Fold:
Amino acid sequence: MSEPRKIGVFICHCGGNISDYVDVEAVRATVEQEPDVALARTTMFACSDASQQEMIEAIHKEGLDGMVVASCSPKLHLYTFRGVADRAELNPYRYVQANVREQCSWSHREDRAGATQKATAIVRAGIAKAAASESLENFRVETLPAVLVIGAGVAGMRAAISLADLGLAVHLIERAEHPGGNLRTFGATFPNNRSGSELIQTLLEEIQQRETITLYTGAEVIERSGSAGTFRVTVRLSNAETITVPVGAVIVATGFDSYTPAEGEYGYGLPGVVTLPEFRRILDESNADGQSSAGPITVGGRPIKTIAYIYCVGSREAEDENRTYCSRYCCTATVHTALLVNARDPSVNQYHLYRDMRTYGKYELLFEQASRQGSVFVRWDPDQPPEVRGGGKRLLVSAADVLDGGDRMEIPVDLTVLVTGMVPSANEALVDTLKLPLGKTGFLNEIHTKLRPVETVINGVMIAGAAQGPKTISESVASSLAAVTKSAGLLLKGYVDLEPFVARVDAARCTGCDECLTACPYEALQKITIDGRDVVQAIPSLCKGGGACVPSCPEEAIDLMGYTNQQITSMIDAFAREVEYA
Amino acid sequence: MTGVVNPNLHREVAAYGAGNVDLCMNCGHCTAVCSISPELGTAFPRRIIHLLQVGREEALTQTVEPWLCYYCGDCSESCPRDARPSDTMMAARRWLTARYDWTRLAGIFYRFGWVQIAAILLVALVVMAAFAIYHGPVVTSHVALNTFAPVAGVELVDRIAAGILAFLLISNAIRMAWSFMGGSQMLKVPVRIYAQQVPQFISHYFTQRRWRRCSTAPSRKRWMAHLLLFSGYVSMQILVELLLGWFQTDTVYPFYYPQRLWGYYAAATLLYGTGYFLVSRWRKLKPMHQTSEVSDWLFVGLIFLVALTGILVHIFRLSGLPLATYITYAIHLAIAASLIAIFVPFGKWSHLLYRPLALYLTAVKQAAAAALAEQPDLAPAEEPAVPDGDVPDGDKPDAIPVIAVATEEV
Ligand SMILES: Cc1cc2nc3c(=O)[nH]c(=O)nc-3n(C[C@H](O)[C@H](O)[C@H](O)COP(=O)(O)OP(=O)(O)OC[C@H]3O[C@@H](n4cnc5c(N)ncnc54)[C@H](O)[C@@H]3O)c2cc1C
Ligand code: SF4
Ligand code: SF4
Structure:
């Protein structure tokens, strides 16, 4: 870099957030001396429209070829100021953000001189990086108008229908023999008593009407390659054949499993102790058997006159840190089950041993209805959990009555229903194949619960339904439609622009030693022959800019664009330089 | 205390006229407004409703809390679910009355109004028949009530009946005291404390002073009306049980003579008191008068009729109408007898004993607990002598709800 660059530096007060702890004027005065700096200014709010306008004017007027804004974290405003550069016809990758708020003023409130010194160093490093920057262009990747949906539960099926209606081809992969997931054979569901199996049947008919949806049952994903917009996914079909489908995006809607209590957990294993899904099956089957929907309920030949429901089994565990969460659906599902039981036989006594009644939102009405019908709600405390004892013809459930001083009482019942929560579906192979991120509870993890609720850290891979964590039907469908929207946003344009921060191999230096090939987790490097020499080349569409290859190269032949070796070393040098106060 | 619950309890108590027990969500509004819950240190009345919902029959039998409630109705007005807790307290008193009654008749009468009416009619018919058969000579020249119904005879029958009814009532009251004081695991309360608290019983018996602390102004008016009624009732009881020879005479004394004045007082207060309550019930003026069971109407109505027929006997005699006097007298006694026979041991009359007894026993327990705090050696082996063994709701820290969703760590 013989000729000095013309870099503009803008140092933000952030309305005092920075200037209260950092002497921004002193920083400005110091960095102004840097040889590559053509202009250094302070500003009250760099992100304000007026300031942005000023920057654009300065770029034009001074003919700047680089820009640094010393302000907040790039997470907040990197794209704002790249946009400013772009609007001023300065290549946006010649813009550098120096974080002097989160990393400086906010963390050193007690030491103004030290904070000022550190801010100066940070800005200098930014200037050094900008000085070594070059113009870069985004990669444009063509996208395929097709989506792979994994899991044909209510979430996956609903997603498939909407994707098809948006003009995207869908490959719907279901591992089980039949589509439908947990609701496939299910009876009445809350809140409207719509039958789960009918719901699935309706969705299936809708799917069959759409030619662009291909449903594969008994199928599993075994391999994935490519990246957002151009994935290639290999699927093993039920007849053991494999096919490879090219798709632009993937939606994972693999659902949940119900928690299985351990032998002896709240009496599980004793005759007359069943889980909620088991009880629902019994109820549904006895209906289907032609037993009219009114009349006494029998389980294993025993007439049921009194039922105890024990809530939160397998959920909200203090002991097991993977299962501290609330399964959300179960309070409402149990109260709803009590309504169904009451409709069958109003003389049945129903005791609900709950911890907190979480029939949230409008489901509160179901709770009230159940209590109107005589369901008895007995609160229990995790310190004194209920106990279930067998023997004799009936079961004895003993519970501490928290709402009356904690006295223990014994409830003789014919049936104990354990209200089991949701656990992640068993899916290690898939998680491994797709490199899906898991939360600490084992459910699939989105980037941010509120801000990016269906996207994962893997571009182009969306998650939906109860695979993300406990959800009711309507919540599952809501998230599946969100995943549809995100997929459509990615694919309907026909292309995606990827940031140019990818590896570049200097063919002249490369000796073809292969070290880097194993370092890359994305298989974004390939061997080619140039002028009879074996060298490595990076594939920009696959490269994630992770940088794992860079240090692996013994010849220092690999650079990560936007973070070149030269940029990083000059930043370190600038940072380490003594600060002389002006 | 470990009790096996009775899941049908809430249904059973519903037959005693309970409020809508099922609707209660245990929010505690009723406890917050109830004027006696702070004294009791329990979550009354929510607690009673809860015991009913859950079916803790044993615990419910062991408490006398419902007897401390004078039915001001504040709780029902505050209930967000319209569960009518005060009605449930009333029903709990009926249920407890039935529980104490070892003959089981009380339960039958309360649950089946028509059986109660039939029983009343039966007693009345028996009395009328007895008069028809055993009456003395019928003098028609002038009114000679004591010839028609000699005082000695009436008094004898009166006292035999009183003895039987007192035996039934007191044996039931002993059952009440027994279960409240801990049954077979009886609290060891020194006799001294029992003796010291006797004035409590007497003062509550005669003044119902606890009522005055119930709720607000309207309740005071009810208390006054009730106190008048009570004084009239006690007057009548004394005049006929103890002083019949002095009261029932064929000589017409001048009107300022004490037996006449006292008799007028009794009649007036009885008519006013019962009239007040009948009208309130009829017009549903207060929350506690929204629902009336057959037994409520019968009890107040019969007292009214007793007073009315009593005064009629007097008027007929003053007017010199012998036959009318004799017949009305027979009717008067028939009504009085059925009132007493059905309601003293098996019905609402029993509250004259149960209420002050409950207040007395509660005071005994509290005094014993206070004594125990000073002298721990009085402690019984099994259980501490705290009133009813309860912890007020607020003392129990609730589990902090874990609002964790599966994906929160992002
Ligand atoms: C007892 C009970 C009662 C309930 N009652 C109600 C109710 O009344 N109302 C309500 O709103 N909600 C209710 N729910 C919740 C409801 O079941 C869920 O919200 C819903 O099933 C979630 O749908 P899903 O598609 O996300 O998951 P699932 O229904 O679990 O479907 C997931 C599908 O993915 C498939 N799959 C998994 N892994 C793979 C793989 N690797 N490859 C291919 N396919 C795969 C599975 O086989 C399955 O078909 C209840 C739940 C239970 C347990
Ligand atoms: S929804 Fe209810 S039963 Fe289910 S885990 Fe949460 S609190 Fe427990
Ligand atoms: S106010 Fe009503 S709902 Fe609340 S605890 Fe009392 S009776 Fe129950």
In short: The longest helix of chain B spans residues 151-180.
